Amino acid sequence: MKFIKTPLSGAYIIETEKREDDRGFFARTWDRSEFKTHGVKTDFVQSSMSYTKQRGTLRGMHYQKSPNDEGKLMYITKGRIYDVIIDLRKNSATYKKWFSTELSDDSCKGLYIPEGFAHGFITLTSDVEVRYMMTAFYKQESRAGVRYDDPAFGIRWPIEITKISEKDAHFPNYDSR
Questions:
Q1: Is the peptide bond before 49 cis (omega within 30 degrees of 0)?
Q2: Position 176 in a domain
Q3: Looking at the 3D structure of the chain, how many domains does it have?
């Protein structure tokens, strides 16, 4: 596994090292000792998945409020997304900065998102499956989000948003919370 630092403190792109033969490939996607070596929290307590039918669907920008902040490790098992994270940790040198990367099933790259980050993505293909491991249990009372088009961040989405949930479309701007 290769840990590639992103411009946001504590967030990593995880490159798997495929072992391929005529049957296909095998790749390790998580290893506690590798993650600990890079100072990444490893006590995952929950695993989830999402499926999105339509290209151009935006999901986000979600996070959980303290004390239920969650870190995430995610991989795409089908399709392709433009993934965006925002550092919302007020004491961070990269506070209010965002980073994006394209993730797909054929790249086998993952993304580690630290606690205190908002996360969202837009689907670049139809029929997208995303797998997540989280460091905190989902708590309805802690769920929160910020607007995908909040001027405080200036996120540039690569394609037109054709579908978004009412909840995601109506999150408040970050500075007005």
A1: no
A2: no
A3: 1
Alpha-carbon distance 100 to 86, whole Å?
9
Statement: the pTM of the whole predicted model exceeds 0.85: yes
Question: Which residues form the domain of 29?
Answer: 2-169
Residue 43: Cβ within 10 Å count: 8
Residue 176: pLDDT band by 50, 70, 90 thresholds? confident
- Supply the CATH number for residue 40's domain: 2.60.120.10
Sign of CA dihedral 164, 165, 170, 173: negative
Instruction: Note the pLDDT tens digit of each residue in 44-95.
Output: 999 999 999 999 999 999 999 999 999 999 999 999 999 999 999 999 999 9
- Give the span between the Cα atoms of 22 and 177, in whole angstroms: 54
Residue 32 domain-assigned (yes or no): yes
Enumerate the β-bridge partners of residue 49.
131
Q: Which residues are catalytic?
A: 62, 132
Q: Is the pLDDT of residue 100 over 70?
A: yes
